[in-house]
Amino acid sequence: MIPTKKWSQFDKFRIVLFVGLIIFTIYFLGPIFWVLLTSIKSTAEVKTYPPQIFPSVWKWENYVAAWNSQPFGVYLKNSLLITILTTVGQAITSALTAYGFTRFEFKGKGTLFFLLLASMMLPWDVTVIPQYMLFNKLGWINTLKPLIIPGMFASAYNVFLLRQFLMNFPEALVESARLDGANEWQIFSRIYLPLMKAPLLLISMLNIMTVWNDYLGPLIFLQDRSKYTMALGLASFQGVHSTNTIAIMAITVLMMIPPILAFLFAQRYIIDGLEGAIK
Amino acid sequence: MDETNQNSFINEKQKKRDYSKIVPYLFISPWLFGFLVFTLGPLLLSLVMSFYNWPVIGESTFVGLDNYITMFTQDAQFWASIKLTFKFALIFVPLNLIIALILALMISRSGIGQTAFRVIFYIPSVVSGVAVAIIWGWILDSNNGILNYLLKFIGVDGPNWLQDSRWALVALIIASAWGVGNMMLIFYTDIQTIPEEYYEAARLDGAGTFRQFIDITLPIITPTIFFNLITSTIGALQQLELAMLLTKGGPMKSTFFYGMYVYENAFKHHKLGYSSANAWIMFIVIMLLTAIIFKTSSAWVFYENEVKGNKKKEKKKLSAVMKAGDKN
After folding, report:
1. What is the pLDDT of residues B182-201, one digit of tens each?
2. B260 within 8 A of B240, measured Cβ to Cβ
3. Which residues, including other chains, have CB under 8 Å from residue A258's CB and lie 6 or more apart?
4. In chain A, which among 90-119 make CB contacts under 8 A with chain B?
5. Which of A121, A155, A201, A236 is the most exposed place for a label (fewest CB within 10 A)?
6. ipTM
7. B18-25 long-range contacts, CB within 8 A, separation 24+
8. What pTM value is reported for the model?
9. A31 touches chain B (CB under 8 A)
């Protein structure tokens, strides 16, 4: 950790530093506040030039109107279904796989782990076209299945993260459990799973953000509006009603809430998880 | 040394035990199945398809290397998109790395408010690409855009960001850099692991802030710079979503990145074989670049695990685990 200096000693350095931090704060948060302010203005206020920063009346009812202008309830239901199922599936399968790669020696382990790492750098374009054909053959196009089922199988990134975490645990733990007659499943579920709570929360939060935000997957695999997710619904809403600025901004604000909440909840774990992955 | 001996001893014991050999495979099967069906299978099929004329409906015909030859010799958009994508990566990747590093250093030096700034700077990286495009589209709007309004105060007549082919790429870089938080956090986390004593020693030798950064921080974080360089280069070369939503590849294809080119060939023009060949070129370029970065890394990346003072932490973790084990 970099030592912090006393205020009196390095005032000039400190002032420059904080001015810099505040400028960056404006860059990172300003746009979000600007969109939030726009979403509660009246139509006239949005169109005036020079721009009016604060609305004269805060019209929160804009949100109700925006929500009802499209079947966003349906989109929300679809998004939630995909997000919840993949997150639960991902946590279970990633934990099992990471455990398998950490605690066992087996034939082909090196090759398989190399493949796992290599798959992380695979461009999306290379696999998506055959995937589309596969899902088409299976009759999955225009259903939520292509967005749920592949997402339930352990992702390389999550396995890697969990494995980095598991490697810090002493083998002695397993040995003593084995001496007590516990089988592999019991060792995993009773000893390791409870210990993996923090990194599992981390990968769950990361998965929530990724899946909730995904735009390209739904764009390619879904056709009917009744199947749309929030991200796709918002994008198509903006495409069709681009002049309805207020409603677009309102839905954009709503769209940002779940991942930001997930992040605020998980930010402690994110740092710990990164620390584990870096070392 | 003790630790490694102990590990190999345990490993040997494990091998001798030879309890049912299938168990490890059962544990990794949830990944293995997904990998075979949704990654490796499609990857190989994509390679095969790249040698075919493969329409969505109707018979596909083997054409040998034709797709690749057409791409290189007759498709002007292929070269235009490659050039554009490299231009974007060459500007965006260094810029992103430098901003992320500056932010991480600033936060770690700020003393107070470290958590708050960390959270603030990270928030945009969790925002959906769709929302990012809408937010920046609104800020850079030609009629009501707040950015150009603010620029007037400092006497700058802002350009027509999204409709001017000279500025659309800049607009995309500004919007993309908004998500720098992830990289910043990785740098920050790494900087936090540098023991304070190093800086104390340097200060005793009379080293100033800048010297401390050059002599201590920079060498220690080179592996992290290396990691970020690879991941952000791979990411930049695949840039697609934001260009699709914010500028739609335009104006006049000035932001028609390679990722968009592949996407449109596949899902708009339905040339599945041709777009598979496109995608493989991207894959090969990414592999080559990664290999080059790896090869050259030995010259500037220092791995000094022993200086990071991990031992203390490991002991702490171990005792925590033992305690947790006791409870069971």
Report:
1. 899 889 888 888 888 888 88
2. yes
3. A208, A212
4. 92-94, 96-97, 99-101, 104-107, 109, 112, 115-116, 119
5. A121
6. 0.88
7. B19/A184, B21/A106, B21/A107, B23/A104, B23/A184, B24/A100, B24/A104, B24/A105, B24/A106, B24/A109, B25/A100, B25/A106
8. 0.84
9. yes
